[in-house]
Amino acid sequence: MRVLVVGAGAMGGYFGGRLVEKGEDVTFLVRPGRQQQLKKTGLVIKSVHGNFRSPVKTLISGEPCEPFDLVLLAVKAYHLNGAIPSFEPYVHEHTMILPLLNGIRHMETLWQHFPEKNVLGGLGFIETTLNRQGEIEQYSAVHDVVFGEWDGTETPRIKQVEKLFQGARMGSRSSLKIQLEMWKKYLFISAMSGMTCLMRSSIGPILSSPYGKETYKSFLDELFSVAVQKEPRLSPDLPEKILTNTARLEPTMKSSMLRDLEKGLPIETDHFHGTLIEWAQKEQKLPILKAIYSTLSIYQEQQKNSYNEK
Predict the structure, then answer these.
(1) pLDDT of residue 308
(2) What CATH superfamily classification does 2-176 receive?
(3) Residues with catalytic annotation?
C-alpha cells in the first residue's frame, strides 16, 4: 500500500515514521523548507518507545506523482482548507483519506471536496512535539491510531489498513463505532484545552483549586448538552466519565492548545469551541463555553495581529 502523509510535523511525522521503520512505502507531502531539513538530517524520532532516524521520501505539492492508496492527514484544523488543494491531485477514486484531526467539523469540510466513501473516520492519541531541530519528541506511553468506516461497517479496505499498521512500533486498532469515539474525544479535548487555556495551568492545579472540579464538570455538562443533539447515542454519564479519566492524568499534563498558546502560536478554538457554540440551540446559555471562547478569541486576534506585524 502506497501511503501519503500530509505533513511531517509532530503527529504525521511520528506515525508516518513508524510506518517507514516497519518498511512500508511512505511519502511525506511537505513544504520546501521541511524537505531540505529532512534531506539533511533524515526523519528523527526521539521516543520512550524507541528512537528512529531514517531518510524518507518527500513530495512538494504540484510535483508529478501517481495517486496514493491511503492519505494520512495530520494537520491542524486551521491548516485544513489550505492543505486540501495540496494533496487533492494525488487522490483517485479508490484512495482512502484517514484524518487524524480532533473534533468533527473537519469531516464536513472533507466531504465538500471528496466523495464521502473516500473519507474514513480516524483519531490520533499521542502527546508529541517538534523541537527546534525539527526532531519529533514523544515521551508518553500512548501513541495510538484508531480508524473505521464512518457508517460503522466492517470492510476489506479496513482490513488492509489494519494490516498496514500491524507490526509498526505504535498502537493501532479499527473501530465499528468510530463516530462515537470521535465525539468522546472531541468532548474530552474541548474541555481539556478550554480549561487549561482559560486558567493557564496544567490539569492538577485546576482540579485541586477552589471550585475547579465543579467548574470543570459544569463545562463538560455544557459541551455534552450540545453534542448529544448532534449524536443522540452519547451516554448521559459521559461527562462524569471524562472528568474521572481527566483526574487520573498526571497533574503536570497540559493540553497541546495551551502549549501552542504559551509559544504564541495559532490555536484551534474556532474548530473546537466555536463550532459547538454554532451548533447550539439559541435557548442554551453555555456561560462557561462562551467565556472560554471569548477569552481565547482575544488571544487569537492578538496572535494574528502580531504575526501580521512581523
Answers:
(1) 63
(2) NAD(P)-binding Rossmann-like Domain (3.40.50.720)
(3) 185
**Tens digit of each residue's pLDDT (9 = 90 or more) over 148-169:** 999 999 999 999 999 999 999 9
Q: Does domain 181-309 have CATH number 1.10.260.40?
A: no
pLDDT confidence of residue 96: 99
Tens of pLDDT, residue by residue over 75-85, are 999 999 999 99
Q: Convert the pLDDT of each residue in 250-295 to its tens digit.
A: 899 889 899 899 989 999 999 999 999 999 998 999 999 999 999 9
**Grid cell in block for residue 282:** 439559541
Characterize the bridge pairing of strands 2-6 and 121-130: unpaired
